[in-house]
Amino acid sequence: MKLDVMKIVRIVKIKRESVTDVFISFIAVIAALLVGAVIVYISGSSPLEAYKALYEGAFGSTYDFAQTLTRTTPLIFTGLTVAFAFRCGLFNIGGEGQLYVGGMTAAIVGVSFTGLPIYVHLPLALGAGAAAGGAWSLVPSVLKARVGAHEVITTIMMNYIGILLCSYLANYSFKAEGWVAQTDVVEPSAQLPKLVPGTQLTASIFVALACVVIAYYILYKTTLGYEIRAVGLNPTAAEYGGISVQKSIVVAMLISGMLAGLGGTGEVLGLHRRFIFGFSPGYGFDGIAVAVLGRNHPVGVVLGALLFGALRNGGMVMKQMTNVPTDLVIVIQGIVILFVAAPEMFRIFRRIRKGGIRNAF
Amino acid sequence: MLSEIVSLLAATLRISPPIALASIGGAYSERTGIINIGLEGMILMGAFAGVAATHFVGNPWIGVLAAVLAGGALGLLHAVLCIRFKANQVVSGVGVNILSLGLTTLLLQVIWGNRGASDSVTGLKPLHLPVIADIPVVGDIIGKQNPLVYIMLIIVVLAWVVMFRTPFGLRIRAVGEHPEAADTVGIHVHRIQYICVTLSGMLSGLGGAYLSLGWLNLFSQNMSAGRGFIALAANIFGKWNPAGAFGASLLFSFTDALQIKLQGVGIPIQFIQMIPYILTILVLASAVKRAIPPAAIGKHYEKGEK
């Protein structure tokens, strides 16, 4: 009987925490949209019209919704990338480079092998893309584990190096005929099939959702995940408890990089069917906002990705209808991160409610 | 050969201000215990504000002032979030960077209707220092630079003197090493932090102004191109010391100058452009182990907490 009470208390406590998390994310989005509205107004457009166009563009029809899911897919990958590393206390801002390198590698595997059956070629290309993304995360993670070099700086540097490398490969070694920096179309046996005719949605979204489940399983149901989270919460205590901090750092970053690599792979094998230089409008960086908003939880990441996928997709319609630049979405992302980063701000809201503005600060 | 070397060194100095100023800013911020990943966004915002203000007013010095203020405003924002609202310092810095990228790209289109670059504005003209400019070799390197380069050199000296030779600098270092002890002897920990983080934004903004007004005379999308992060690496390499940070910035600028010189020698441009980024990683890999950061870096300090 006693055990049951403990269990209920535990469940209720977890629930209360996640309710607070969801509440903070919700308020942050509302606040960011309000600040965004002010910016739209100042730059001479109507915020109401802009947001209406944004919403219509994102959810207005089946086609629009499928397109929103198309934009959501890479964000699930890059959101998981940031969230997974963050659970180990690491800030992987290298998603963009890992995504590029993964996509390019998948394209190379996709065009280089001919005559393979799809059940061999597709997994091979997916695996190669994931492996390349993982490999690209090794330099920052090994340097972090060995000498303590801050991963934010090294992952950013690896972004530039990776993107430049892909630019070289797309401009010289694997360039398709013509003036565009892109590879040839990958073999049909390496393509992810389209899901909804007439839209761009591909089976990549299933890969993404499978990764959500796998990431959740690793983090919360395995010893490896326990160790990763322990290191993220308190590396000194984890070390004292017999966990190898260095190993956890490298493994967490490896998985994180693989997720980003798969994200690029999904775009290349699904949406574009080839590597096109510049295929990512900054998905790796969007992943930061997605993870922060999703409170670094795999399920939260899906919701965050859906929101920013909708903003990205709706943003294009907004641009056509109202001339408000799509970059408003990036501004909103930045503000969301700043709001979620500072949970203390919400205590002030609470104090305003309780004791009026004067006592709040 | 000599003229090649002279032009390379002159280019090094010409390239250095954004990285050097931001890395000194980073040193001031991190010496008080606040990590500032947002330097990149502060450079970018400064570069934008400089061109925008010059575009509307016509005087590039007003642009420089606007850049310093814009960078300072972002610094203050980062400070308020980290100090008053106890934000995770890295997350807040990343937020500042993304906000800056979004806001500058958005306003670029609102003001000039072009997502790539702004129109040209009046930039800052290089000076011709009397006497010094006429000295052979030396004059070619340091005699004919942009006024902001000379301002940067003055700031390097001032920043070092303030940090290591004044009571205020002693307080800064005390706050970053042991905030509890600093508090006990009557130092206002948070006030020092606010001042230094805002200062780091102002210095980065000034660096940004140089990038746009002292160089290209226009703003282009995301023109800071990772310089804020290279500045952070320079700050670590320079051991959180303004003079050391400046020295490390010169090293990074030298590879950048070399990179520009090497373009067109037959090596694919992508590999040449990688050089500064690879060097940054190598420097971090070799320097970090010997570099000991301020003891209280990244931690939130609250009066009366244990």
Care to give the gist of this entry?
The complex is a heterodimer of chains A (361) and B (306). Chain A has 361 residues and is mainly alpha-helical.
In one word, what is the shape of chain B? globular
Helix content of chain B: over 70%
Quickly name the level 1 CATH class of chain A.
Answer: Mainly Alpha
Q: Which regions of chain A are unreliable across 5 or more consecutive residues at pLDDT < 50?
A: none
User: What is the architecture of chain B at the second tier of CATH?
Assistant: Orthogonal Bundle
Describe the 3D structure.
The complex is a heterodimer of chains A (361) and B (306). With 361 residues, chain A is an all-alpha fold. Chain A has a single domain (29-355), classed as ABC transporter involved in vitamin B12 uptake, BtuC, CATH 1.10.3470. Helix content of chain A is 76%, strand content 0%. Chain A has 15 helices and no strands. Chain A has helices at residues 2-42, 47-59, 62-87, 95-112, 118-136, 138-147, 151-171, 204-221, 223-233, 235-240, 245-272, 283-293, 298-322, 328-341, 344-355. Chain A is globular. Chain B has one domain: ABC transporter involved in vitamin B12 uptake, BtuC, CATH 1.10.3470. The longest helix of chain B is centred in the middle third of the chain and has 28 residues, at 189-216. Chain B is globular. By secondary structure, chain B is an all-alpha fold. Chains A and B meet through helix 6, helix 7, helix 12 and helix 14 of A and helix 4, helix 5, helix 11 and helix 13 of B.
